[in-house]
Request: fold
Amino acid sequence: MRINVWFDALVNYISTLGWGSEDESLFEKYWVNGNPTQYCGKDNTRFQAAMWQAMLMAADLPNSHQIIVNGFITGDSGIRMSKSLGNVVDPREVVKEYGIDALRYFLLREVSSFEDSPFTLERFKDAYNSGLANGLGNLVSRVMTMAVSYEVKLNDEDLKSKYYTNKIQDLEDFDINKFINGIWFNLKSLDEYIQINQPFKKIKINKEEAEKDVYYLLLHLYNAAQALESRLKN
Reply:
């Protein structure tokens, strides 16, 4: 007797939630009463969308609500990364040198949520320097330097604010790449705000207005940090 490996693998979606055990509370919460969502590579769509759904129907269980199909991560030649081909990059080595958040940033912003995307160390380093070191890093340094120098602080109500909630639809559409790009669009607008309003010059002639500018920058930078932390940590 033979059992297809996919049969056992697919059952893990619900067995890990306690289906078939004495305590099915998690299964009831997340699968029966929740929004069961699957992620798979485009080469596994047949198993996820046909075999697994048929298995659920045969067991008289609720079907998945949606299946999110990802593209492949490719090497510099455009060929899908594969251990057998040897065209892989060891993520542990990347994390060892640049940190885990830098790798998360690249995967969230530079790798498409749905299409094939290349990963090379050169592309990673370019994204790290332009997006994090020279982009976010320089912006944080400029804003925080002015905030400390001009003694501008956020109040308790500011610290409870959720500025980027208008972007939540991108997450509900599972377009994480678009969500992250939206954050960086707003960060770029803060750079432009500094160039236009020049609070570092205004402080010499209109201290109150300069402090208002820095307060605006500090609040929006804090909100961006909240949004980034929620994506990079989860």
